[in-house]
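Researcher: Structure prediction, please.
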Amino acid sequence: AAMSPTVRGGWGVLLILATCLQSVSAETFALADASIPNAHSLNVVYKFYVKGTPPTSQNAVDFKNVRIILSPDDPEAPPASSLGRYNGLQIFVMPQADFEAATASRAFCTEQGYFVSETAKSFTNLTATDEKRDKSEILQDAGVHYLIISNCGALGGLAMRGTVAIKPAQDNSFLSPLESGAMGIYACAFLFYLVAFLSWGWACIQLREQTMMLQKGILITLGICCLESASWWLFFKDRSDSGDFSRRFFTAAALASSYKLVAIFYSVITNPGKGVHSDQGISFLMHLLPMLFLIFNFNHTIVQYLRHGYLISFFDVFISAAPAVVMGIVLLLVAVRQVSGFIETLEREKDQESKVGMYRYLKGVIFFAAIASAFMMSSQVLDIPATTSAMWAFEATVMHGLPQLVFMLCITLIMIKSWPSADLQGYAYEKQDKGDTIGVPGIDDEDDVEVAGTAVEGKGLVAAE
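Model: Predicted structure follows.
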């Protein structure tokens, strides 16, 4: 049996993103001009994860609008006149273990002209002269199932259209068992980020004239987190209800997942303001590195999500993750270097103890984020819960819950120490109640003015730290 090749590397998945997102949904697969294998061979085109059901209910496999056409991408496609006499094409779903055992001998085409198995739920005797055809089969077994197209005839250059869906028996949700619980995770994340965004925004408004770039960056990051959580929730809600794959929600969610990391990076490395000179600004390299990370991390998000249905191997997932991991390490090192520079400069200034303490604390948070991210990325790449049906319920926790938890912890730790306050912001000036003097007090003025707690001659203004 000639198995279809896996996507080699994450770069390939990024290049075929538009095609993939049109042809895959939760437990529904669209045969968007799917290539039929060469003569006397078969292709595994998708992998379903089927929930177990109670004895009183059963899952079903639905074949909808299935038909055969000439392959639009094959220059050696046969003439249309030959299609009416051709049969031997078959599309079927069967358990992974049974398929591997049945194809061990590499002789799957029988005298009937197609693959025969007691556990295969098949749509057979497909010919190019047929109109769109539908069929439904009861699926008695749970676990991993392959969607397979076989060609036991001698003709190639054909394609197939239609959809194949695993119709849920009980909960009327098209979500895969691997995604069960994802909606709850993102609902909780959205509420957390929304409360944090509103609270932080209110605190910044109170001291809006002295808000540091770090504090503004945190506010922007929290806004992106709200967008990310809402987009993922809407994506899974749409899949659960209809089985459709929303490219708009997926793209928005995947981009926001990467943008929030870039946003918090910029927040940390940006000039903190008073006490640090302007020559420590952001160079071109500081802009290039986050953009590269954004591209690599977005690519890995796509590969990570498509790995199960499209049989993407562990090696390919690792290759897609490697550039994102390397760039992530580089960004962490850059952040540590920048923060260390801020600390050294602030220590040479007077009355900057609060900012020095904050940036020392922030440096510790960066090291914590590095350790937590390494654990999270390793868990996702290994993807242990997907290897056995007994652990499928934990897949959403590893793939969706763990990244949100790590980021929530890190952003909360940063917010605790950098909460907007008069002590942290530096110097703010307010008008004194007595006197009408505006500007610098005169030498002969007899009233006192307090400057940072020190009495001086003059009147009209009070400088408060």
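Model: The longest strand covers residues 59-70.
Researcher: Thanks, that helps.
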